[in-house]
Amino acid sequence: MGTLEGKTAVVTGGGTRGIGRATAARLVAEGAHVFITGRRKTELDEAVEAIGPSVTAVPGDITDPADLDRLYDAVRARGKGLDVVFANAATASLATLEQIAEEEVDRILAVNVKGTLFTVQKALPLLNEGASVILNASTSADRGTEMFGLYAASKAAIRTFARTWANELRGRGIRVNAISPGPTDTSGITELVGEENATAFKAREGARVAIGRIGRPEEIAAAVAFLASPDSSYVLGANLYVDGGENQI
After folding, report:
1. What does the pLDDT look like over 80-100, one tens digit per residue?
2. What one-character-per-residue DSSP string does the chain give?
3. Model pTM greater than 0.90?
C-alpha cells in the first residue's frame, strides 16, 4: 500500500521529460490515479505509455480556462473528487531588463502566474477534505540571477500564492504548500539555453550547488509525494527547498 492508495491527482506539465512526468510516475507508484495535462500531445502519450494505465492524459494549455475546464471535467467524470494538485507547468526565458519585450512579459506571466492561479481555482469544487495542493516555485525567487528577473518574479508570486491560499483553504482541511527546486536536469534546460550549451550550463550550475551537482527530476518528485501524502499532515503554507543546499549553505 502506497501513501496515496485510491487517491486522485492532477499534475500540470505532466508530459515533459522532467519534474512533471517524474512526479506523475511517483504518485502512481504511491497508489494514485493521476491526470496529466500539457500542450504537447505526443509527450503526453509517451508519458502514459511509460507510466501505465493509472495515468489519464488530457491535452491542454493552462492559460486557456476552457482547457482547464476540460481537464477537470475528466476528473469529475471519474467520480472520486480530487486529492492532490501539483501545479507544475511553467516556462522561462533569459533576458536582461533592457532586453525584456512586452510579449515576453505577457507569455511568462500568463503561464506561470495566471495559469497556476486558475489551475488551483478551477480545482476548488472538486477538492476533497484533506486534499493537498503543491505549487512549483523556484530557488530563483530568492536570487538575483542575471537575465532571470522575469522568471524569478513570476516564481516569487507563486510563493505568495502558497501562503495566501493556505490561509484561505485551511478551513476546508486543504493544505497548500510550495516546493522550490534548485537547478534540475530536465529537457527545459535544453529549451532554455540550446542543445549546444546545455552540457556546459549543467556543469556550471552543478558546480555552484553545495551538494556538487544539479538535481534529478525523481528527487523533486519525492518531495512532491511527501507534501501530497499524510506524512506531511502538519506542514501548511511552507516552501520546501529541494535544492542541494543551493540557498541554504
Report:
1. 999 999 999 999 999 999 999
2. --TTTT-EEEEET-SSTTHHHHHHHHHHHTT-EEEEE-S-HHHHHHHHHHH-TTEEE----TT-HHHHHHHHHHHHHHTS-EEEEEE---------TTT--HHHHHHHHIIIIIIHHHHHHTTGGGEEEEEEEEEE--GGGG---TT-HHHHHHHHHHHHHHHHHHHHHGGGT-EEEEEEE-SB-SHHHHHHH-HHHHHHHHHHHHHHSTTSS-B-HHHHHHHHHHHHSGGGTT--S-EEEESTTTTT-
3. yes
